[in-house]
Amino acid sequence: MKHLNAKNGLKYLLCMQFMFFIGCGGGGGGDDDIQIITTPEVVVPVITAANLSSTINENPDVGAAIGTVQASASSGSLQYSLVSQSVNGALSVNASTGAVTVADASLFDFETIQVVTAVIRVTVGSITEDVNVTVSITDVDEVEAVYTIWEGASMTFTKDDGGDPTNSSQQDHLTDNVKITRGNSGGQIYNIVSEAAAVKETSPADTEWAIGTIDQIDELTFETFRAATNGTPKNVVGQDMVLHLVTDDIYISIRFTSWSTGKAGGFAYVRSTENVDSSKK
Asked: Which of 65, 149, 199, 219 is at a distance of 20 to 30 A from 126, taking alpha carbons?
């Protein structure tokens, strides 16, 4: 076995001590080059995020959208989590998208609380950024709707059996957009302003109907005339209804008092009229 000379022995010891950092050259009698292996630079992601402010009416539905945290990162995928909220259980956040929604609708009561705040943490790897969320709650009693209710004196309209539907006296002139009449070959009522004859599924055009009374307006379901009468208009005689003029956004109390059969074409109803101080609800 050969003995290491002093020079090669020193190199051997250096290689063993710094084997992960220094590349050692081969033997021989000449001087060998030494290479230093460098560790790649670690790039730290940078998060950019903005605070979120939103407004929502009180008594929303569970899952109602509030807004989405706007954030981005120079690299990696973002994750979102709730760190804290001023009303526990009020909000939730989608961990992948940052979408903020209503978690408990009962907590959104204007008379109890007007603002919900929260802190949402945006994370990518080990880097985090906190954003502030502010949700203002609106009192729905202060939101003014624009529809009009006719609550004037009642009037009776009658379309005669065999009466000419093109004759003004055989039309109920509700507004410039809606004049209701009925043909003499059977069928239902229609709006002669925009229809030449009744269309079973949709007439009268520009109207919606519901069984019920004006004081129930927020709970009523409005449909076409045919749907509201369960496909049999004559059976609606004597029932309270509410007529909605869609374009004019007017609600009218109405009750049919007669419906002629046998292709006579007649009908009659009692309805409310406009009054000087029509209520805006």
From this structure: 65
